[in-house]
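Deviation from plan, reported transparently: heme C complex.
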Amino acid sequence: MLLTFDVDPWLAVFGRCHIIFLHLPIGLLPGIALLEFGAAIFRKPTPRGAVLTLAVMTALVAGAALASGLVLAGEKTDSDLLGEHKLAAIVMTIVCGLLPIMAAFKTRKVFRITLIVALGLSVYAGHLGGSLTHKKDFLFKPLERAARLAKAAADAEQAASNTGTGSGNAVTPLVIPPVTKTHFELMIAPIFERACNDCHNPDDFEGDLDLTTKDGILGLDRDEPDRVIVPGKPDMSILIELCELPIDDEDHMPEIDEDEPDAVQQLSKKELTALRRWILDGCKFD
Ligand code: HEC
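Because the crystal trials were delayed, the predicted structure below was used instead.
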């Protein structure tokens, strides 16, 4: 999704400076808090000149971070996450704009409240921004992954004990497999979930592809019909073609995640065969 250069290239470069500007208010706000609250804690006079200067700087760099961010957002596909990040950043910039005004007052109470609100907003907007660049919930992903693996292990153990191995002469309960799950839910969705959906979900939406919904998988959410998956024709489906490319081919899927190269799990032969078979049978979801 590169910018087609109907946008001035210098403006595009300014947009990409977002990754520099955004760190400035994040660094300055705790600095101001240290000066303001540190002085209060040590019962020294507030260094009002320094606080005011830093507050002016914070307002300016927050403005620059917002402006460049709005330009950069033009390069991205719209998503709820991007919308939330934008909104949080706009509110944060307004609050940062109020900081120098409040800092100029003699009473400190209103300024301190504004400062704490600005700090909170910077953490929130920063977290949303981090989720945009490092995939959703990057921070807590290791915990999520550990919980998923633990659950899979527990399920496997449960399944093993249900087959009756080692349960002596106790009567093993008859396990009736749930009949409500479709072939798609049992065999296909878990493949996408395990190997693809970290990147191909409505928020990350890499390659404009969402593999978490039927419309996304069939490309019905796209403006132009294309050949990501062609029901009945696995050999014409780009999805299969990309997964079967040699692993060192730069177009190979699943792509290696630069943030977490070990986290991406490749498809097994069996999974590829299941995908091919499902496409050949016409991509049935029920
Ligand atoms: C680490 C992130 C990541 C993972 C995991 C990943 N992909 Fe991708 N995928 C991408 C990116 C990025 C692109 C866009 C590449 C480009 O535009 O050059 C892409 C593009 C695609 C496309 C092309 C879409 C189009 O319209 O051209 C398909 C198909 C695809 N991926 C399928 C898959 C499948 C199937 C899996 C799981 C087996 C998978 N991907 C796993 C990041 C990933």
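The chain is about 60% helix and 0% strand. We consider this an acceptable substitute for the interim report.
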